[in-house]
Design goal:
Blueprint lengths: L1 E2 L5 E2 L8 H8 L10 H17 L6 H22 L9 H27 L5 H25 L7 H24 L9 H18 L3 H4 L2 E3 L6 H4 L3 E3 L15 E3 L4 E3 H29 L7 H4 L7 H28 L3 H27 L13 H11 L13 H28 L13
Antiparallel strand pairs: 1-2, 3-6, 4-5
């Protein structure tokens, strides 16, 4: 392959079957997003100092994957000790999780700084960065559910996890349709910082502190006055102590609410606001007169139409609906606890794969298929919850079918991630984990 300095293809590659992919990768340009409050206050300068301390040979993608590994380790610790997400892990686990989460935030923020410092930024780096973030978004939400002792049987647990994924993908769709990812004054970094502080508090004070000691007076004016007179049935584990599986209600008649519920409520309101704002930002771009719309729309990039946006949202809806239906089906059938853990893993890696395909649509100008295979993973999980016992092929496998599906989700994600990463690296003639060009032999 031969490419000009402007990123155009010459020779046989200009008309080859992968010409559009190559042209898209070579024509990729990074656009810096707007900064939130904490990024402006101190995070950006802190990340600059971190990047300045890295050796020149350290590839940004290594930093990215190391950050993702921190979250995988924190998640494994939390659910290894507390498989039901009920806050049953020793206090030190939450302290370690807070340190690992902070390490992830720092590495995730400084990998781009290292890329610009070493002039090694590329579309591969964007795929790595956002692809890792997509998987960790759900894992982090699950950790916080355990930190607040929600339990994986609680609808609030799953609403928190899935709403985070919805917000993440819609934020990235602003990047697809507008050419620049939209961040607000209070956005992901502020939420992450609050989560890190919450994990630290749990590490020092324990899970029970959130219910016994950290109580917030309920305002006396409407509609809070109605809340103060109620006992709410959440149908799950909200607020109950570890081991108290039959306590499905939260009593507000004392006039106080646990701080954990306040945190979760504020988080959900913030996520909902960002979901609406990102959707409006995309739709507003199409309301502009022709000639003044964002460049991806004006250029006719794949997926950059109103129909394309609807298609992308539909794929996300299939994933979310499948996860929720699987959760509800497991509650009805009183399935074992490890099935919920398998669904968490399945949901996180399936979403990561869907996000990868959206990113490839942006950086390589490859259209999103009508029904991406990954969009069927969580609906397939839901179908197995309903009818799995009638599938004769499952007998004698020696492993529960939900772990097979979780493994399949990981395999689909990792195989696609590796395949497209190698393909992009081949086009750019770079090594994914080294700085500098390499020559084909």
């Amino acid at each position: 392959m031969v490419a000009t300095r402007g990123g155009a293809l010459t020779g046989a590659d200009a008309a080859g079957p992968d010409a559009d992919f190559k042209r898209g990768v070579l024509g990729y340009k990074y656009v810096s997003p707007s900064c939130s409050v904490l990024e402006r206050l101190y995070l950006n300068s802190f990340w600059d100092k971190c990047a300045a301390s890295y050796p020149d040979w350290l590839a940004p993608n290594i930093i990215t994957l190391t950050g993702g590994s921190c979250i995988l380790l924190a998640f494994s610790l939390a659910f290894g000790y507390s498989p039901g997400g009920c806050g049953e892990a020793p206090s030190w686990v939450y302290g370690v999780a807070a340190v690992l989460y902070f390490a992830y935030q720092t590495l995730d923020g400084s990998d781009g700084k290292q890329a610009r410092r070493t002039k090694s930024g590329s579309s591969l780096g964007e795929l790595m960065d956002h692809g890792v973030d997509a998987v960790t978004t759900g894992l982090i939400a699950a950790m916080m559910g355990d930190c607040f002792a929600l339990g994986t049987r609680s609808p609030i647990f799953w609403a928190f996890l899935l709403s985070g994924q919805i917000a993440f993908l819609l934020s990235n769709l602003t990047l697809v349709h507008r050419g620049k990812q939209t961040f607000y004054d209070v956005d992901v970094m502020e939420v992450q910082t609050a989560m890190i502080v919450s994990l630290l508090i749990t590490g020092f004070a324990g899970v029970r502190w959130w219910r016994d000691d950290a109580l917030v007076p309920i305002p006396s004016f409407f509609p809070f006055s109605m809340l103060a007179e109620s006992k709410m049935d959440f149908g799950g584990r909200l607020g109950s102590y570890p081991g108290e599986w039959n306590d499905d209600t939260l009593d507000f008649t004392s006039g106080y609410a646990p701080l954990s519920l306040v945190f979760m409520g504020c988080g959900m309101m913030g996520v909902t606001k960002n979901i609406i704002s990102c959707s409006v930002d995309v739709l507003r771009s199409y309301a502009l007169p022709e000639g003044s719309r964002p460049s991806p729309i004006e250029s006719g990039n794949p997926g950059c139409t109103l129909a394309g946006f609807a298609h992308q949202c539909a794929c996300l809806a299939m994933h979310v609906a499948g996860s929720w239906a699987a959760f509800q089906g497991m509650r009805e059938k009183a399935m074992p606890q490890d099935a919920y853990l398998a669904l968490i893993i399945c949901t996180c890696f399936a979403f990561g794969d869907l996000m990868d395909r959206v990113l490839i649509m942006r950086v390589a100008k490859v259209p999103l298929t009508l029904v991406p295979p990954v969009a069927l993973i969580t609906p397939g999980f839901a179908a197995m919850v309903r009818h799995g016992e009638s599938v004769a092929l499952l007998d004698g496998l020696g492993v529960d079918w939900w772990w097979l599906l979780a493994g399949a989700a990981i395999l689909v994600h990792v195989s696609y991630f590796v395949a497209v990463s190698r393909k992009i690296a081949d086009v750019l003639q770079i090594h994914p984990f080294r700085i500098g060009k390499w020559k084909k032999k």
